[in-house]
Records
---
Amino acid sequence: MTTEEWLKHGISLAWWVLLAWWIWSAWGNKTATRGEPWLTRLTLYWLPLVVAFGLLGPGEWFGHTWLREAILPHTVPVFAVAFAFAVSGVALAIWSRVILGRNWSSVVQIKHDHELIETGPYRYIRHPIYTGILMAFIGSSIQAGDVRVILAVAILFASFWRKLRMEERMLGETFGDSYVAYKRRTKALIPGLL
């Protein structure tokens, strides 16, 4: 196996680890007291995720269209950067999910006895799970290296941004001044920037 193949397989493995952890750790979460409607979740979150991840599918899916035009070389250094982004992103998402504990949900919800978590990565950013998944997705996008990845990252970012804004509105209503103070101390996705 070449170094490029090893790095590609490593990126895929990182995603499989994240998926397995997500499924395993979803059991035993607190029950929801409030959440967004299922049709909103489907059309504004899940459907864009499917489209974004579909855009990262095998290049053959896109034939010889403009979406398949290369913007990054397929070289070991580029794949190494992709691998670093993917693995770091998955690690951040898993760590954040562990810290969030039973308060976690894959959808926008307020849980019974919901707690405002401000430790671990939440000390620096309010949505480190999204940051981690975006980092991993950018890693996969760097690996693909075609024009299609620009559209894929934009779709994923827009979907997460809409979702985090809704979460912040619900958390603000639930925790009031504590959440306002937390927002002043932290950024949404990137420490010190965004």
Note: The first helix runs from residue 3 to 25.
---
Amino acid sequence: DLAKIDAVTNCRYGAGTVLVFAYDKEAAWKNEHEETVLCSGVQDETLFAPQVMLQATELGVATTWVMDLKYGALKESLGLPDQEEIVMIMPVGYAADDCQPAPLHTMRKTLDEIVTYR
């Protein structure tokens, strides 16, 4: 139901299909060798999503990665169990002929602003 998506984000962009990327916290691999247990769920989803985007592009369909949403509200409205965590949504559809990236998508920082070394 796209109304559930529209209730949690302004970033559906008119797409008729929206994929929800989530992982099961109980099933995801965990690195328990450190004081803070790290779960691979987010990394797994962020590795999978670009593959979906590339395949969609190959099929002539546009996508975008959206994290600007109310995660808890979407999880509740979809009836996801407690152990499921949403990572992102991905609207899928055909881009308008005049579609352009948002201005922030073309702004870049210099390497000095993002890289440190010792």
Note: The CA atoms of residues 52 and 58 lie 10 Å apart.
---
Amino acid sequence: MKIIAFDLGDVHTGIARADELGFCAAPYTTVDTKNLISWIEQAITDNLFDTVVIGLPKTLKGTDSQQTIKVIEYK
């Protein structure tokens, strides 16, 4: 299973890939968020992943933040 994870930001999006067993993720690359859709289209063409995980940021109190709302809307 090829798992890729996104940490969406206003300007940049961090991308990580999981190991073959899906136990551990490591940094893969960073993409300008405005170019993320085209990066994903190319990654699909290149068959880089079959599962996507999107990080959902929360406050230290476990509540939603402004960034939480942005990520939900973007997905």
Note: The chain has a mean pLDDT of 93.
